[in-house]
Design goal:
The protein is 51% helix and 7% strand. By secondary structure, the chain is α+β, with helices and mostly antiparallel strands. It has a four-stranded mixed sheet. The longest helix has 20 residues.
Length: 216
């Protein structure tokens, strides 16, 4: 579907990319002002602090506790993660929330589906949920970005609420495209957000279908 074949990175390389991303995100979050911590993110209904709290949830909650929370939420993972993010955002200081990422930079957590690549995607995309919403131009290193772009899988679109029907994603800064149809142009990291079902601020994308993917 328009993707250039490349040699898949090994587990050690992906684990190193995850650790580097967490260290850098911790530095980034620690640089934010109190006003920025309380600003909206790209995640509907979550401020920056809820996103940062959610980023470390997998490190801090054992499986048994998550299952208990799932039961309370009547089996809804969305309600579970929302409840935990809001509770932790209120219970911990800005410094503590950022520090969880640094402390657990090498934690082996992975989401239920997708393994290490999905763990990297979780960190990178949520980091962009914050930086893009704040208008901060944090550039994701190309090696991490390529791992995630090359792993874009339409089977996951239902989970993210992604609708790319009739659209071809075309990176203007990388040799990468995905899908078929009307071209949608943007930086690779912005197109990654589109693939993960995010709506972006105006001005970051270009193409005839751009209105489908813009929030304002």
């Amino acid at each position: 579907m328009g993707k250039t074949a490349r040699t898949a990175p090994d587990r050690a390389a992906i684990a190193a990319a995850i650790a580097a991303e967490r260290y850098e995100l911790a530095d980034f979050f620690e640089s934010l002002t109190p006003e920025q911590w309380d600003a909206p993110s790209l995640c509907a209904g979550w401020r920056v602090r809820e996103v940062v709290a959610h980023l470390s949830m997998g490190f801090r909650y054992p499986t048994v506790k998550v299952l208990r929370e799932l039961v309370k939420a009547r089996g809804s993972l969305h309600r579970t993660t929302d409840r935990l993010a809001r509770r932790d955002a209120a219970a911990h200081s800005d410094a503590e929330l950022a520090g969880f990422l640094r402390t657990h930079a090498h934690h082996p957590w992975t989401p239920p589906i997708g393994g290490l690549v999905s763990a990297l995607g979780h960190d990178v995309v949520h980091g962009l949920d914050v930086s893009v919403a704040l208008g901060v131009d944090r550039e994701v290193p190309e090696d991490r970005l390529r791992i995630l772009l090359d792993a874009v899988d339409p089977r996951a679109f239902r989970i993210f609420g992604t609708d790319l029907a009739g659209v071809r994603l075309c990176a203007k800064d990388l040799d990468w495209s995905f899908g078929s149809g009307t071209p949608l142009y943007g930086r690779g990291q912005d197109l990654l957000l589109v693939a993960y079902g995010r709506g972006l601020p105006a001005g970051r994308l270009r193409g005839d279908a751009v209105n489908r993917f813009v929030t304002d």
